[in-house]
Amino acid sequence: MEKVKYISMITAIFTQITGIIFLFINIKVAFGLFYVYFFSLLLLLFVFIKTRMDEKKEDDKNDYRDY
What we know:
Blueprint: H1 2-22, H2 27-61
């Protein structure tokens, strides 16, 4: 899951910068890059939610508050 998170972050950064540059060169390519950027952000959000849910399950499993 960590590898997917890092690839998604790098893709989001790269496509956002490239999309802004391509707004001045070719608008159709820029919109395509922004679609990839949006998909990358959705994937990143999904990974963060999944990671948080896994941490929450682990915390609930190792809950020692009531001895």
